Amino acid sequence: MSPFIARPEHGVVWITGASSGIGRALALRLAEEGYKVAVTARSHEKLLALQAEASGLAGSIVVLDGDVTDVADMEHTVAAIEYQHGPVALAVLNAGIYLPARGEDLNHEVFERSFAVNLRGVVNCLVPAVRHMRARGYGQVALVSSVAGYGGLPGGAAYGASKAALINMAESLNFELDRMGIHIQLITPGYVDTPLTAQNKFEMPDIVSAQQAADAIAAGLKTPAFEISFPKGLVYRAKLLKLLPYSLYFRALRYFLGSGRKRRSVGPRITAHPAE
């Protein structure tokens, strides 16, 4: 049986972390295609501006304030979408943060905050969404991870670990969700030009615009593919690097990053979040 692919007539698309970056661009892209898009974030004013921008499009955007780190809030959010706007046919769990975590300055807060948003925040949304989809016998879910989840990188002990967990989560759930008629996908972007990456003071390899990212994701969501990854060159290089034995993997990273004296200053260059 072919995987379920959500179309406008199937129900609502729910996008978390939609106030800026990829989430915002994707919401507009799908609204252009005629979807009703429910957007969630903690910035109410930015969501209202997004809704206003979509007023002339074929579809529509509806605003629901919400904090993905709050279990009860996400339960209520999914229930509100289902009751007021229609079934959640597609959930794009995009909300995330990047906080550097380096060996010389390890602290609990960085890990707790990273995992609270990037990992537990996804679970808080995934559980109620899947429950409703399972009851109907169909649905589509996309988890936004990152190429940083493919392998350990300097500065990425918290961020990379959370995104690697999403990769494993999606792979594992694919077996059971497929049998329930729920199509799960994994989105692994490289560098995307967003307000977050705009803070970087270095050249980011193969960077794409938020609109290009949204176009790639929108196209991928309409296919049976498990992974939606871009830009392809960066993704292939990251995957090939991870195939190396650890001795060569660490040696290759040290080569690309420079000497040990420089490693501290270049860490954020490859770990700043490309997706939000």
Structure characterization notes:
Helix 1 (21-32) crosses helix 7, helix 3 runs parallel beside helix 5 (120-136) and helix 4 (108-118) runs parallel beside helix 6 (159-179). With 276 residues, the chain is an alpha/beta fold. Strand 1 (12-16), helix 1 (21-32) and strand 2 form a beta-alpha-beta unit. It has a single domain (8-269), classed as 3-Layer(aba) Sandwich (Rossmann fold), CATH 3.40.50.720. It has 10 helices and 9 strands. Mean pLDDT is 90; it is low at 259-276. 48% of the residues lie in helices and 16% in strands. The strands form 2 sheets. The chain has a 7-stranded parallel beta sheet with strand order 3-2-1-4-5-6-9, sandwiched between helices. A two-stranded parallel sheet has the order 7-8. The chain has helices spanning 21-32, 44-53, 71-84, 108-118, 120-136, 159-179, 210-221, 232-242, 246-257, 260-271; strands at 12-16, 36-41, 60-65, 88-93, 139-144, 182-189, 192-193, 208-209, 227-230. The chain is globular and about 55 Å long.
